[in-house]
Amino acid sequence: MCHVIVTCRSMLWTLLSIVVAFAELIAFMSADWLIGKAKPSSSEDVDNRTGASQEPYHPTLGIYGRCTRISHMQLSRRDTLCGPYAENFNEIASGFWQATAIFLAVGIMILCAVAFVSVFTMCVQSIMKKSIFNVCGLLQGIAGLFLILGLILYPAGWGCQKAISYCGHYASAYKLGDCSLGWAFYTAIGGTILTFICAVFSAQAEIATSSDKVQEEIEEGKNLICLL
């Protein structure tokens, strides 16, 4: 018989697992890993209504995408265009970034799988006498290791020609040059830290759903069990 078991610790672990998976996925897809040096406004960058020059803009560069400003030849305005600069995996700017993409993609796939499974832990707490929480916690720890490897390798690619075009000639491996780190990089780091927190907290979720109080509720014949 299926028993729906909801506790504060199990629900918190489920929510954190979902948040971490989405945060890492959004960071990976974003182009805001590196913020390039400011591009000065040209004589064409003039606001038609005020006549004032527009502020310099900062192009951004991600693992496989970028955001830059494009001009319209027939219209006196410019728009920011974001999209992948690499049409396939081999066109990613650096071998280090290719490795980063692989490690992050594997880690994110594991996190997304765990997030999906975590939703069903309210009904199914074990498979083949093994706790789903413990298995998911182990997978989250493995995913965290993949994410760490990806984040360590990413700065090694700052010396590639693509990064130099955004960050100036002083850019090199582990040296930003004229660039600064964007929110996507910090989000990936924060998500990695939370991944290990989730891995540790999964044990608490397992303890909460197999406590004596839960067993007492099951013995009383209750199918829906909610505990603090």
UniProtKB/TrEMBL annotation:
It is found in: Membrane. Signal peptide: none annotated. One of its GO terms (cellular component) is membrane. It is a multi-pass membrane protein. GO terms for biological process: single fertilization. The chain crosses the membrane at residues 12-35, 96-120, 132-154, 183-203. Keywords: Fertilization, Membrane, Transmembrane, Transmembrane helix. It comes from the Eukaryota. Belongs to the LHFP family. This is LHPL2 protein. It comes from Nycticryphes semicollaris.
